[in-house]
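User: Sequence recovery, please. Input:
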């Protein structure tokens, strides 16, 4: 070969090698191609009690460390995981599940029906994850069969079989398990650096599809810290608030994942008369306790413009708290969005007038002023609270947006308005949100909704086959002069559905075509079995 061509070829190769080194050096800081680093606070954040499903660890998401009986697929139907088959009695009071006989925990002990029965019975005792109050008990019939006996008909109990990770009954200790969990999922626990990250290693004995990545580090960084982790190329995937979703980060693509997660505001329906909730907290609010205030806000708030602003143009207006993808959603509303005239008319007819000209209406000496609390670590909730406050001024209502934390809000949830997030593929969440029997119990029914028609719809729904129950669930929320609509008690001010935004390194394919619809809390890892490294064609020589 001519010497000048040989030198030229060598220079080209050197340039390509340097380019590859720069590319991969920037995209994968101190990690191999079979290692993932993900800032995924949306996966559940750092659990205070550790990685223990019995104490609430990720009951709504892929637990990674543990296995579940069933898994939800992309079509929102269930497929077997530990289960091989299940039967349901005609009265929906007995669920019998057959399970695999080839599964072992990562400590090499076999997983059988005793472990499943133990997990569910303990989870009922703690009440920290799912509400299992409808379950009398779970019983191991034999090593591969577990039976769930309920105290009332419940066609939604199947959903609960997909939500709790199974722990080993023989070695479980509620004081130590969370810090050193043993499971049978696709990954096994390796290390927890509290306040920073958890490190997982692939479980090579996992019975299901093996993920490609041998090591998974989940950072607990959130908000700006998560965004900076992507900018500094410290992560493969970074979950960020919607405020960052339209930013550009070199070497990353923004993925907006569809969700059934809805944001809304609870409006206490009772007056403050000194009543206490079961935890001795105050009940009632002398402003939102007037139905005219609640109706006016539902009429006057412009959800469409709020989604454009507070939710960065990525939100989807919502009026009833049920995401539009769910089969029990109400696809039509009786509200004209942002109808200020209707709101003002409603208030004036009810005697709320601005007699002193300060811009705030009053009635019988009470100012139309109340506090609206939001979680300070949730930027989109702050944006919602501030936007509602601004819009409410046009109606003569003063809404004071206050950042807080859940320790404080837990004590005032039945007396003050709060920005909430809800979303589940289990329709029975409607029972926890609106049934009168649930008023003030934990975080259930914070507005103290009390309507016999709503209760009847919900009670009927539990007794019907799941597909046949959808209209009852829908009517429980929105039924003529009942439900949460302005024609009913207007107990909630629902705002909009959100998406989850993730910056994903261009060298990683997260198989978006198989990504699952994300439930409340979000879970980027639902299809981690399909993730793989990809390399740009221009760099294939590397």
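Assistant: Recovered sequence (542 residues):
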């Amino acid at each position: 070969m001519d010497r000048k061509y040989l030198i030229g070829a060598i220079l080209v190769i050197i340039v390509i090698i340097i380019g590859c080194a720069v590319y991969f050096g920037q995209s994968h800081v101190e990690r191999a191609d079979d290692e993932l680093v993900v800032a995924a606070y949306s996966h559940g954040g750092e659990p205070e009690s550790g990685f223990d499903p019995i104490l609430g660890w990720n009951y709504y998401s892929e637990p990674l460390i543990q296995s579940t009986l069933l898994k939800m697929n992309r079509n929102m139907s269930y497929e077997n995981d530990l289960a091989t088959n299940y039967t349901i009695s005609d009265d929906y009071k007995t669920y019998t599940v057959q399970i695999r006989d080839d599964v072992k925990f990562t400590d090499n002990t076999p997983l059988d029906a005793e472990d499943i029965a133990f997990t569910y019975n303990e989870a009922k005792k703690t009440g920290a994850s799912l509400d299992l109050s409808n379950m009398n008990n779970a019983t191991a019939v034999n090593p591969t069969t577990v039976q769930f006996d309920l105290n009332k008909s419940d066609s939604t109990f199947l959903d609960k079989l997909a939500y709790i990770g199974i722990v080993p009954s023989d070695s479980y200790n509620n004081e130590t398990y969370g810090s050193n969990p043993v499971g049978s999922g696709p990954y096994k626990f390796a290390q927890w650096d509290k306040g920073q990250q958890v490190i997982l290693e692939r479980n090579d004995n996992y019975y299901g599809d093996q993920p490609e990545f041998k090591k998974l580090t989940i950072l607990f960084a959130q908000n700006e810290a998560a965004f900076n982790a992507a900018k500094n190329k410290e992560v493969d995937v970074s979950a960020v608030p919607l405020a960052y979703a339209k930013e550009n980060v070199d070497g990353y693509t923004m993925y907006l994942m569809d969700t059934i997660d809805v944001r809304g505001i609870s409006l206490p329906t009772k007056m403050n008369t000194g009543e206490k909730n079961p935890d001795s907290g105050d009940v009632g609010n002398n402003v939102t306790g007037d139905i005219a205030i609640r109706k006016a806000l539902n009429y006057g708030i412009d959800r469409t413009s709020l989604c454009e602003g507070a939710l960065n143009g990525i939100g989807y207006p919502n009026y009833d708290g049920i995401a539009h993808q769910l089969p029990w959603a109400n696809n039509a509303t009786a509200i004209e969005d942002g109808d200020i005239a209707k709101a003002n008319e409603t208030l004036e007819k009810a005697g709320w007038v601005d007699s002193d000209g300060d811009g705030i209406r009053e009635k019988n000496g009470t100012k139309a002023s109340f506090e609206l609390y939001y979680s300070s670590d949730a930027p989109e909730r702050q944006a919602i609270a501030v936007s509602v406050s601004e819009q409410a001024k046009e109606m003569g209502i003063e809404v004071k947006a206050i950042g807080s934390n859940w320790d404080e809000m837990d004590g005032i949830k039945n007396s003050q308005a709060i920005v909430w997030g809800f979303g589940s593929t289990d329709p029975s969440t409607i029972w926890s949100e609106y049934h009168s029997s649930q008023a003030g119990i934990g975080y259930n029914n914070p507005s103290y909704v009390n309507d016999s028609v709503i209760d009847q719809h919900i009670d009927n729904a539990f007794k019907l086959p799941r597909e046949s129950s959808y209209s009852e669930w829908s009517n429980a929320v929105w039924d003529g002069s009942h439900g949460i609509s302005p024609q009913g008690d207007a107990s909630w001010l629902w705002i909009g559905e959100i998406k989850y935004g993730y910056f994903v390194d261009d060298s990683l394919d997260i198989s978006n075509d198989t990504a699952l619809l994300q439930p409340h809390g979000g879970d980027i890892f639902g299809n981690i079995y399909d993730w793989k490294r990809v390399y740009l064609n221009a760099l294939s020589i590397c």
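The first helix runs from residue 3 to 27.
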